[in-house]
User: Fold this.
Amino acid sequence: MSGPVTTADAPASGAAAPPVGANGVEIIPGREAMVGAVPVRRVLPRRPRRTVGAWCFADHMGPMSVTQDNGVDIGPHPHTGLHTVTWLIAGELLHHDSLGSEQLIRPGQLNLMTAGQGVAHAEEATPQYEGEMHGVQFWVAQPDATRHGPASFEHHADLPQVELPGADARVLVGEFAGAASAARADTPLVGVDLRLRAATTVPVQRRFEHALIVLAGAVIVDGTRVTPGALAYLGIDRDELSLSTDGPARALLIGGEPFPEPIVMAWNFVGRSRDELATAARQWNDEDERFGRVRSALARIPAPVPA
Ligand code: MN
Assistant:
């Protein structure tokens, strides 16, 4: 998926809001946006919450109906300084990137692309798929220690699953309830897909801040009802989360150590200064070798020229 992140989402730079303590639930409404022909609800970055751990962007895509003439087609575009984490609930997508990766992704599988100093990719509908499309794409900010490093791509078809009373969980990233995902994480991070049938208590790490993104149904946390289209920020200093539902529900739990480095985001880039991001935008538009080439029939998406 492609941003673009604009100042409508959150200020382009500045420090993140301080984490709140364990007894607060902050409901932050998402913003409806279009990514190509795809309606999304952008729940990160938002004012006042720009990051949850290193998670810095989240687009909840669909649910929508796709046909052979109307699908997800995001042409080649670049990224820097972030990982893209793609997770589908329904549908399928074909990923092409400048490393030469070509990967079909289906529900239950995770695509994780590391941009480092630069990568480009395209996300396309598959010719045969018709039906529901529903998923999330996250970006995770890379720390200074790795953000100038090489790009890479991982596909994880077999993620650990955990059975809990009232719920089952799939561990996308990090460690949860004794199960660890093999997906790359450059900073302490967790991402879990929770399917809730009834009230449940899930263990979390005290030093992490957490947030919940409900994909379907409703989840009640600390007496606050959370529904699709918002980010429920849960703060730091919790050992567990008590969740309840009034019917089947599905939610993504994300968390991590508060990201210590102030980041700057613009369009599809994460960096540390506006100059750095302007250089990346110019290089993409000049077809600089930094971003390589993507094998895709779709048109390249030009970077907005910085003011
Ligand atoms: Mn993208």
The chain has one domain: 26-288. The domain at 26-288 is CATH 2.60.120.10 (Jelly Rolls). The chain has two helices and 26 strands. Residues 1-2, 77, 79, 84, 121, 268 surround manganese (II) ion (CB under 6 Å).
